[in-house]
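Take a look at the protein record below and tell me what you see:
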Amino acid sequence: MFILSEDSQRTQGRDAQSSNIMAGKAVAESVRTTLGPRGMDKMLVDSGGEVVITNDGATILNEMDIEHPAAQMIVEVADSQEEEVGDGTTTAAVIAGNLLGEAEDLIEQDVHATTIVEGYHEAAEIALEAIAEQVSEETVDDDVLKQVAESSMTGKGTGGLTAESLAETVVEAIRHVELEDGVARDNVTVHTQIGASSNATELVPGIVIDEEPAHDGMPDAVEDASIAVLDVELGVRTGEIDAEYAIDSIDQLNTALDAEESEVRGYAEQVAESGADVVFTTEDVDDRVSTYLAGEGVLVFESIGDSDAKDIVSATGATRVGALEDLEEADFGQADRISSENFGDDDLAFIEGGAAAETVTVFVRGGTEHVVDELERAIGDALDVVATALESGEVVPGAGATEIAIADKIREEAAGIEGRKQLAVTAFADALDVVPRTLAANTGRDPIDALVDLRAAHESEGRAGLITSGEDVTIDDPFDYGVIDPADVKREAIESATEAATMIVRIDDVIAAE
């Protein structure tokens, strides 16, 4: 009797476990060399010839054409890390891969998968306790937040800018959207524009959109602007039914044209008389309307996207209006300045300031598309970790120090665990050593020697990381060098890596349809 289709492929037992573990390890290994301040970049080329150059773990894994389902779980680890805390994606993926490697060794020693899973979960609980013990007692102020941002961006592509200078911009942006009940991270946007050095990157207290004025004669800038946001077509209304009209004389033609002109002028006069200085509409604007409004000194932007309209409403406090006759002064938003600027082939509208402004934009410049793309990713990660650190108020040492502390505590606790589960707990600690070992390898140091020195320094000093400064590599307290990570980044990396590794280890039967 056939239960499965003849085209199905089935892999069972040790072969299934080995295949899944191998796939997970391979994916983790692909991003390992990007870890740390001396991490290398990856060049990814898709089937269409599009090139992405980055050392961001989540970007690399998402750009790779991965088909193996177990390998895809490692990609999901990076995605989860990116979604929750914005950084630490490479760390999470690498830890997951090494947990699988350690599990493979245990399976070969006839340790049951269930025992490994139980041990890993127990070790993860110990790890979270160790992270809590590493949290700094200092208040998370602007100086600490700058160090968090700088630590996140060090080693990433930041063009001609230093991570230190960008960190100030990042912290200022997050502080702008800080609320009593947390941080409105979504109110910080990053807008990229090619055509200048990355040193031209700046913070815009408002939003930037890719739009140009509806008429060349309109003002380039409006100060203290009253803003109307419309979902209205400012032109001759057309019916939904195709119809033809027979005109028998020139008088009838003139009458029709006069009626059309009167309708168009009526729209223009309504807008001008409303008192709006600037109009954004999601619909089209007739050339005659834009010409008339240009003469009245009104700045108009037409056919803006729905998302841009929502951003403008959020940034200015305006109310979207769906009918021109409903437009009232109470619907207007306010901005300190609205301007239109040209950047090569692109025209951008800057909506800055205003009493109701809640949005801020990091306006990123760069000489090439690859530079601004990587700079955007680096700034995005930094914004996320600064927001995370500010909300939680908890930071821990970076540079591998936290992983060394976690592994040390797990090994200490493992001595009190009975049975084979102790082997799994110890293996979890060994898997965490991959972070300092990889940091050492990427700086050119011998990984084993560095690991021994780090453990010794941790035992004697209580905190030790691998500090990179220029060409020098020092083992010291990361807090003294401003190498700091949000505690939540470490927690999320441990939890997501553990979940993925244990899920893969428990699979002993793979049924694939062709």
